[in-house]
Amino acid sequence: MDKINKLIKALNIGILTLLSTLLMSGRVEAVCPVCVATAATGFGISEWLGISDLIPAIWMGALFSSASLWFINWGTKKGMPFKGFGVIIFATFYAITISLLQTLGMIGITGNIIFGIDKIIFGIIVGTIIFVGTTMHYEAFKKKRGKALFPFQKVVVPATTLIIASLVFYFLTI
User: Fold this and answer.
1) Residue 86 burial by CB count (10 A; 0-12/13-18/19+): exposed, middle or buried?
2) DSSP state, 113?
3) What's the predicted TM-score (pTM) here?
């Protein structure tokens, strides 16, 4: 029964995330919408399978980085940006996410820590760093070279890096 409750909570998060992302996305193409939906679905499935909260949280960090970048790009195209716009958007997305996870009782579970930090918070940080880092690297590479190294590089590199990080933490049994 506990696995079913976890699955329902994870699916609720995935559905809310997907809906909010779709409502905001419009024609903004910062990052592929399929990637966002995949990350949300992956969170639900891994929770259901009983995988450590750290693994789906890595993907959640990437998901919310992607959604934040979408919204920032959309706001930029609409002429909304002001000093600190990006920081405010990122902070808002993460505050909403962490509040939702806390409300659902998924954050603050006794013993669910790594390096003294809640596994979900730690995973979100790791996923964010990976996603933002690979996105920045792609943009710099594309600017210098004038084009991507291979088709779908913008999607493949972050996804591959997230998979590798997930496998590393999975096999470390953290």
Assistant:
1) middle
2) E
3) 0.71
pLDDT digits (tens, 9 = 90+) for 67-111: 888 888 888 888 877 888 888 888 888 888 788 778 877 788 888
Distances (CA, A) of 70 to 90, 159, 167: 11, 17, 27
Is residue 38 a contact partner of residue 67, using CB atoms and an 8 Å limit? no
Map out the domains of the chain as residue ranges. Answer: 2-171
The HSE-up count of residue 29 (CA atoms within 13 Å, CB side) is 4
Structure tokens at 126: 């790791």
Question: What's CA 42's distance to the chain center, in Å?
Answer: 11
For the stretch 27-43, pLDDT in tens is 444 445 555 555 556 65
Q: Other CB atoms closer than 10 Å to residue 19's CB: what's the count?
A: 11
Angle between helices 153-171 and 54-77 (to 10 degrees): 160
